Amino acid sequence: MTSGSQEDIVRRHYANDENLRVRQETHENYTVPHRSFAQWVMERVDWHDDAWVLDVGSGPGLYYSKLNPNHRNINYVGMDLVPSMLANHPAYDENGMLAVSNVQDLAFTDKSFDVVMANHMIYHVDDMEGALVEMKRVLKPNGMVVIGTNSMNNMPELQVLMRRAIVLLTRGGAAQVRAPALPSDRFALENGTRILSRHFFAVVRHDLPSSLVFPDVEPAMAYLESTRDLREASLPADVVWDDVMMIMRQQINQLIKHLGELIITKNQGVLLASENARFIGEAVEKLKSVTE
Question: Would you tell me which of 47, 72, 75, 140 could form a disulfide with 52, CB atoms 3.0–4.6 Å apart?
């Protein structure tokens, strides 16, 4: 069992990009219908080639890789709290700039960026409200914040299986057992919309439902193991992570044996926020253009 502040957990979990790589490859290889979430997010934004873009929590540059081929003249800054996460970022070899910085105290001047992205990371921050204040500070007056995240109803099938495993292992009553909370529940599509509305004039939500379809147990288990640092501390005191994973493996094997595959519902999306009064109308027109 591990413990510590949110920042300590994040630093430990992202000491290198291995866990993130496993999850990104899982989504890339097993999502049905096949669609790159990062590419889809980037298509929600109306880019212009002289824009300044800050990618908060950029990690090894997944979103940069989706942006760069079509927008060579964009001024990109990738940023991460953990230096090792930037080690394989392609901006090292191209025209982008990289920085080690904390989103709660950004090392950039006021009104520097046209777009500030914080995809699947803001929920890891201890002081989310303070982070949003900082993001707004470095954003130009008509700029846009882009935050990809999950629904609070993301991957419910895995949550049910994990809760069942914990019930079998704990000496406590089943009524008190909950599956370990997903980190993204702190800033999901639902509550994230409300949080952003406290800081920005307009917030637009886009959803991208899909599924993970696993034909065998190993990729599902690799995905679960990649979340260990983020979820283990939420287990009951008398429950050990490895025992939970042993029962998860048994359950998933049985489901695949009887059904032929394991289907996990994904509910993800992106929140766009701005102080621009024309933002809502522009967002609607953008949505029409990408759905026609």
Answer: 75
Token output for 4: 């510590």
Q: What is the DSSP string of 56-69?
A: ET-TTTHHHHHHGG
Domain of residue 206, CATH code: 3.40.50.150
User: Quick one: pLDDT at residue 287?
Assistant: 65
Residue 161 · residue 264 · CB < 8 Å? no
Give buried/exposed letters for 27-53 (b at 16+ CB in 10 A, else e). beebbeeeebbbebbbbbbeeeeebbb
In a domain, 250, yes or no: yes
**Residue 1 domain-assigned?**
no
What's the total number of domains in the chain? 1
Nearest Cα to Cα of residue 57 among 109, 17, 114 = 17
Residues 35-94 have pLDDT tens digits of 999 999 999 998 888 899 999 999 999 999 888 666 778 899 999 988 888 988 998 777
Neighbours of 216 (CB within 10 A): 12
Task: Evaluate if pTM is beyond 0.85.
Answer: yes
3-state secondary structure at position 245: helix
Peptide bond before residue 33 is cis, with ω within 30 degrees of 0: yes
Give the model confidence (pLDDT) of 259-276 as tens digits.
999 999 999 999 999 998
Residues 6+ apart with CB under 8 A from 130: 104
3-class DSSP assignment, residue 136: helix
Q: For 131-188, how does the pLDDT look when each residue is reduced to its tens digit (9 = 90+)? A: 999 999 999 999 999 999 999 999 999 999 999 999 999 987 777 788 877 889 999 9
